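Translate structure to sequence.
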């Protein structure tokens, strides 16, 4: 099966940024966790198994829809 989902790029802006992948299906479950330190970059993709990504900490998220900084108050 060929997957043609978009990629997103997550760049940690502080130590200890946590990335949590969540599954598809009847019940949402954690399927993958990564921890990044400041300056580290993670390239992620939504697949038939991963339907959502949750971030903890301050990070820059870049996608074809634009850029967002997590962990900032408005």
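Result:
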């Amino acid at each position: 099966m060929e997957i043609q989902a978009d990629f997103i790029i997550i760049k940690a802006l502080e130590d200890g940024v946590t990335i949590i992948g969540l599954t598809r299906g009847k019940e949402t479950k954690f399927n993958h966790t990564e921890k990044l330190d400041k300056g580290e970059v993670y390239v992620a993709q939504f697949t038939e198994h991963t339907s959502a990504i949750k971030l903890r900490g301050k990070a820059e998220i870049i996608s074809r829809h634009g850029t967002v900084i997590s962990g900032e108050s408005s």
